[in-house]
Structures are given as C-alpha cells and as structure tokens.
C-alpha cells in the first residue's frame, strides 16, 4: 500500500513487522507507541486484526484492493494506490477536520500487512471494477 | 513530474523562447513513460478558467498520443466539437489521434464505473492507457458529498477543476479555502493554476489575453515522499505565461 504517513508511523510498522516475524506478537512498547501515534484508532484497529476483518482481493488484471469489515458489519473498500476509506470517520476526521492521518480501517490494513495476516481472495475483473467504482458492495 | 504539461508549454512556446531553450525535447519526457519506471505515477490538478483548461487538456492529450505515443483516455461531459487552433500548427497525424479514446460519462457514477473498468481486458488491448484526463471534475462532483479521486497508478492523471470560490480577482491563494479543493489536493501531486493577468502590461498587449501559469507541488507528497522530490529536475521552470490570440491560438513563454 502506497503510504502517505509520517516517517515515525512508517518506522513503527517496520518495527511491528520485524517483531511479529520473530515472536508472532507485538511487544508492549510497540503497542504503546501505536496508541501514542494513532490514538483511540489503534485499539479499534487491533480488534479488527484479531477478528480477521481484512481481506486483500486480487483480480486477473493484477488489480488489488483491500476490504475491511467494520464494527457494524459493513464492508469498506480501501485502495492500494490511494489513501482513502469510504467510512464516515475518514470523511469527517481526516478529510474535513484534518485531525488525523487515517481511520481504524486503513490502520487495520497497514497492521495486517505488517503482520502478514491479511486474508487473500480472488475476484474476476468485472467484480474488481464494481468494487473499485464503489457503486455497489461485492 | 507534470512532464506532459511542460512539454505542451515547450511545444507551443513563442519562437523567441524556442531559440533560447536548449532543453526543448518532447522525447526527453518520453523516457519517463517507459513501463516499470516507478516515477511515472504523477497526477496534476489543473485549476482555472474552464475553456482554457479544456484547450490545455486537449493539447496534452494530442501531445501524449502523437509525441510520446501513449494511449490516452479523455473523460468529459461535453462532446468535443473541434480541436484548439494551436493544434493546427503541429498537424498531428490522424493515426496518433486514434490513440485518444474520448469517453462521455454523464454522472459521477458513470465516471467511477468507467475509470474502475479501465483494467478490464477490453480496455487494455493492445496496451492499457498511460494517461487519464478528466475535463471539469467539478461537473461530476456537483453537490454530492462523497468524492473519490480517480487516480490509478502507474498511469498519469490530469484533471481540470474550477473552484466555486472564485479566485479570479484575488490571485490563486483564495482558492485554498475551498473545502473540495482541500480534499482534491490530497490526491494530486501537482497543481497547475491558470490565473488571468490583469496588469498594465497585459492591457498593453491589446487583443491578446494573458494568463499566468503556475506549476506547484501539493502538500502531502512534498512532505511524505522525499524520494520523489529528489527525482524532480531542480531546474524545471515552474512559471509560464500563456497568451491567447483573438483567433484562439495559444503561445507559451517562460516567466
Ligand atoms: Zn475507514
């Protein structure tokens, strides 16, 4: 996922990746750092990771997109090449108020990628188009 | 960055400037378009007068198709009636024009569907498009509250946008207060602003219209992607002056 995050967040994901590879868990100091950088988003995103809520969809054309099941059971599509989530929190907190870099869904995608626990699924090219256009849930 | 627009400016430069400019070579921009080059994903938001933006977008499309030989998809809500007068100067071959695919989505939903479907096989033969142009983005966004940028790497994107907050008399800065523009800026790496020059010099130019053209990087990528910034040629001109003759032909000058 192309990143638009501050360097400190990038480094944090790299540290989590390394620690998780070695010990299959995130040590306390990194959890505290996560909460410090991302605020209340961090715990909610970790919940989503625990519930296996993040799926990476791929189509034969090579396109990829992430799908995150939100707390309410709604599906949110997050793009690979562009920092965007269609959830209300992203529209309000990030785009409108500019109060944070991301929502819990995008953070969950980053965490799943760092921990290599993203579910994988294949879809057809037309299904991918529908997904990317955001016109209908898959 | 913004190399297609820059080669348009260079191609339609006034003769006096052409002699001075040793770097004028549309093919130098071409090398950056080669597949596999990670620096290709560039996006420009073109701000200002709609009819001039549209001419610039058409010039860019023809330049990209004829000089760089890439496939271009041009999204617009209004049918293309005629090509800009300035194009008659360079007489592009009909073959190169075939590399431009004009698409006329009527609504934001149509646009999103068509952009989202660009990766499907019927749109990628013989090759996928390397430049996506969206004319008058504001016409698609309308009053809807959810916007999505149609950006898609690795491919260039140029979109024109006219802000509701009219910046014509106050200089480019007042447009920063447009909330839609604030959001769009997050998703474009470069901004190109067209600003009508109403100075004494402009008035003295007589029937010609003078416009100032500014190329600038938008906030997010500037801070977050230092690597891309290093790739940017340091000496690239960032300001141009555009003069439009009564017959509609366009000429650029380095400012
Ligand atoms: Zn979200």
From TrEMBL, chain A:
<feature type="domain" description="SWIM-type">
    <location>
        <begin position="76"/>
        <end position="114"/>
    </location>
</feature>
<dbReference type="InterPro" id="IPR007527">
    <property type="entry name" value="Znf_SWIM"/>
</dbReference>
<protein>
    <recommendedName>
        <fullName>SWIM-type domain-containing protein</fullName>
    </recommendedName>
</protein>
<dbReference type="GO" id="GO:0097196">
    <property type="term" value="C:Shu complex"/>
</dbReference>
<dbReference type="GO" id="GO:0008270">
    <property type="term" value="F:zinc ion binding"/>
</dbReference>
<dbReference type="GO" id="GO:0000724">
    <property type="term" value="P:double-strand break repair via homologous recombination"/>
</dbReference>
<keyword id="KW-0863">Zinc-finger</keyword>
<dbReference type="Pfam" id="PF04434">
    <property type="entry name" value="SWIM"/>
</dbReference>
<keyword id="KW-0862">Zinc</keyword>
<keyword id="KW-0479">Metal-binding</keyword>
From TrEMBL, chain B:
<protein>
    <recommendedName>
        <fullName>SWIM-type zinc finger 7 associated protein 1</fullName>
    </recommendedName>
</protein>
<dbReference type="InterPro" id="IPR027417">
    <property type="entry name" value="P-loop_NTPase"/>
</dbReference>
<dbReference type="GO" id="GO:0097196">
    <property type="term" value="C:Shu complex"/>
</dbReference>
<dbReference type="GO" id="GO:0000724">
    <property type="term" value="P:double-strand break repair via homologous recombination"/>
</dbReference>
<feature type="region of interest" description="Disordered">
    <location>
        <begin position="226"/>
        <end position="255"/>
    </location>
</feature>
<dbReference type="GO" id="GO:0003697">
    <property type="term" value="F:single-stranded DNA binding"/>
</dbReference>
């Amino acid at each position: 996922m192309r990143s638009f995050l501050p360097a400190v967040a990038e480094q944090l994901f790299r540290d989590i990746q390394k620690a998780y590879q070695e010990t299959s868990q995130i040590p306390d100091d990194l959890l505290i750092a996560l909460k410090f950088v991302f605020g209340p988003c961090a715990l909610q995103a970790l919940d989503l990771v625990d519930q296996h809520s993040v799926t990476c969809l791929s189509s034969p054309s090579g396109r990829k997109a992430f799908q995150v099941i939100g707390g309410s059971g709604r599906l949110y599509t997050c793009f690979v090449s562009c920092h965007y989530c269609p959830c209300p929190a992203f529209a309000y907190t990030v785009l409108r108020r500019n109060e944070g870099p991301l929502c819990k869904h995008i953070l969950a995608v980053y965490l799943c990628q760092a921990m290599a626990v993203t579910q994988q699924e294949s879809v057809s090219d037309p299904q991918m188009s529908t997904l990317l256009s955001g016109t209908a849930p898959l | 960055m913004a190399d297609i627009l820059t080669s348009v400016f260079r191609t339609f430069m006034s003769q006096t400037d052409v002699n001075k400019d040793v770097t004028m070579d549309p093919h130098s921009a071409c090398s950056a378009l080669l597949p596999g080059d990670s620096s290709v994903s560039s996006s420009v938001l073109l701000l200002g007068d709609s009819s001039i933006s549209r001419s610039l977008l058409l010039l860019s499309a023809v330049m990209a198709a004829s000089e760089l030989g890439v496939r271009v998809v041009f999204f617009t809500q209004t049918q293309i009636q005629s090509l800009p007068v300035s194009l008659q100067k360079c007489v592009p071959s009909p073959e190169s024009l075939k590399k431009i695919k004009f698409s006329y989505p009527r609504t934001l939903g149509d646009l999103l569907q068509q952009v989202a479907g660009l990766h499907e096989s019927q749109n990628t033969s013989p090759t996928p498009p390397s430049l996506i142009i969206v004319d008058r983005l504001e016409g698609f966004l309308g009053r809807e509250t959810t916007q999505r940028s149609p950006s898609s790497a690795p491919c260039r994107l140029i979109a024109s946008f006219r802000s509701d907050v009219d910046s014509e008399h106050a200089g480019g800065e007042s447009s920063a207060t447009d909330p839609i523009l604030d959001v769009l800026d997050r998703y474009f790496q470069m901004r190109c602003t067209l600003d009508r020059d109403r100075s004494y010099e402009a008035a003295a130019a007589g029937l010609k219209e003078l416009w100032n053209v500014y190329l600038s990087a938008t906030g997010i990528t500037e801070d977050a992607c230092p690597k891309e910034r290093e790739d940017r040629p340091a000496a690239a001109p960032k300001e141009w002056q555009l003069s439009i003759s009564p017959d509609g032909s366009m000429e650029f000058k380095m400012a």
